[in-house]
Amino acid sequence: MTSDEAPPAPEPGTVRPGGRTARVRAAVLDAAGDVLAEGGFAGLDLGDVARRAGVGKTTVYRRWGTPAALVADLLADMAEQSSPRADTGVLLDDLRANAHLVRTTLTDPRQGPLFRAVIAAATCDERTAHALHRFYEIRVAEWVPCVELAVQRGELPPETDAQEVVRAVSAPLYHRFLLSGAPLDEESAERAARAAAAAARAGAYRTTAAPPCAIIEA
């Protein structure tokens, strides 16, 4: 880029503002979450969001431009605001805390429908899908140290894939939430945490295959 060229403009919703702009962003994202929870992605109208947020429609269109851009910023904000990981010093208890957080989020009267709407939108909108993948990557990365510390303590085998262990906790909960319709209760969260911990201790998530057991001849 030459000295007289303007820098490329950031994508809508990617600049983190301060002051009044931050308050406007918070109000708009809160309103967008309400609309998604009530009517899904198809019902996400920027004019309606502006009205609910008490801001000018021009402001919303200028900052975000499209419903997909607004959802992307909403997911980024949700990732930033989500509860931090547990650090109990025991792998199973950490994974229990993770499972409890996922279950609580998906069964929340507002958050549950919001996530369902975003996931549905991600199946047909590339930008929403990218934002959803990024949200999940951030949340998995937040909990990875729990597994890495368990490896250091000797609770898990060396070369355990920490990301896969964290994903193994939430996967059965999302399956219940989206596909099976089975109850998403505390028992299911406990089972998910225990199963992931047991599989990890058995070496199921090692990044290299364990050597085959030697055959002992009589």
Please give a quick description of this structure:
By secondary structure, this protein is mainly α. 66% of the residues lie in helices and 0% in strands.
Give a verbal description of the structure:
This protein is mainly alpha-helical. The protein has two domains: 19-67, Homeodomain-like (Arc Repressor Mutant, subunit A), CATH 1.10.10; 82-201, Tetracycline Repressor, domain 2. 66% of the residues lie in helices and 0% in strands. The chain is built from nine helices and no strands. Helix 1 (19-39) crosses helix 6 (111-122) and helix 5 runs parallel beside helix 8. The model is unreliable at 1-15 and 212-218 (pLDDT under 50). Residues 22-82 form the HTH tetR-type domain. InterPro entries: Homeodomain-like_sf, HTH-type_TetR-like_transc_reg, HTH_TetR, Tet_transcr_reg_TetR-rel_C_sf, TetR_C.
The tally of domains stands at 2
* CATH uppermost class of the largest domain: Mainly Alpha
The stretches of 5 or more residues where confidence is low (pLDDT under 50) are 1-15, 212-218
The DSSP helix count reads 9
Beginning-to-end CA distance, first to last residue: 74 Å
CATH superfamily annotation of the largest domain: Tetracycline Repressor, domain 2
Name of the CATH architecture of the largest domain = Orthogonal Bundle
Order of helices and strands: HHHHHHHHH
Number of β-strand runs: 0
The CATH topology of the largest domain: Tetracycline Repressor, domain 2
What percentage of residues falls in helices of 4 or more residues? 55-70%
Class based on secondary structure composition and strand pairing = mainly alpha
The radius of gyration is 21 Å
What about the largest sheet? none
